[in-house]
Amino acid sequence: MTRRGWTTGDDKEVLDFSARGFTNREISLCLPGRTESAVACRLTKLNPKKTKSVTKPTPEMKDSKLRKCLGPECEKVFMSENKGNRLCKNCRKTIGSDSSWMGTW
Fold first, then answer.
1. Against a cut of 0.70, is the pTM above it?
2. Are residues 15 and 43 in the same domain?
3. Which of 21, 32, 90, 104 sits a CA distance of 20 to 30 A from 41?
4. Do the domain assignments include residue 105?
5. Could you tell me if residue 12 is inside a domain?
6. Do the bridges between strand 77-80 and strand 65-68 make them parallel or antiparallel, or are there none, so unpaired?
7. pLDDT digits (tens, 9 = 90+) for 32-57
């Protein structure tokens, strides 16, 4: 596996997931090519004084969890805000509001 640098977007996602109380393993599943230890190291570097999230989940977050994308040929694991969100960000952009692809399964 080739190492790649951390982007600002990666950092934002890592901090967001951590603030929601997700484990390093769960975060690594959302970021393709990142290991659990890479996520742990990055969190330490981004926020050295805060090694563990103390943010409590809000009521809006109660349905948030890792889910497999149901987009065509995707199957990426992503952080879903609620049980009705079954498409990752990339599939939502690609598919848009056109849901005719669902009939092709």
1. no
2. yes
3. 90
4. no
5. yes
6. antiparallel
7. 889 999 999 999 999 866 544 444 55
pLDDT score for 60: 60
Residues 84 and 48 placed together within one structural domain of the fold: no
Q: Is residue 103 part of a domain?
A: no
Whether 69 and 34 map to the same domain: the answer is: no
Tokens read off for 18: 């951590």
Q: Where does the pLDDT of residue 81 fall: very low under 50, low under 70, confident under 90, or very high at 90 and above?
A: confident
Question: 31-65 as b/e, with b when 16 or more CB fall inside 10 Å?
Answer: beebeeebbbebbeeeeeeeeebeeeeeeeeeebe
Domain tally, the chain: 2
Give the CA count within 13 Å in the CB-facing half-sphere of 60.
2
Whether the CB-CB separation of 20 and 55 falls below 8 Å is answered with yes
| Residue 69 sits in the same domain as residue 42 | no
Q: Cβ contacts of residue 102 below 8 Å, gap of 6+?
A: none
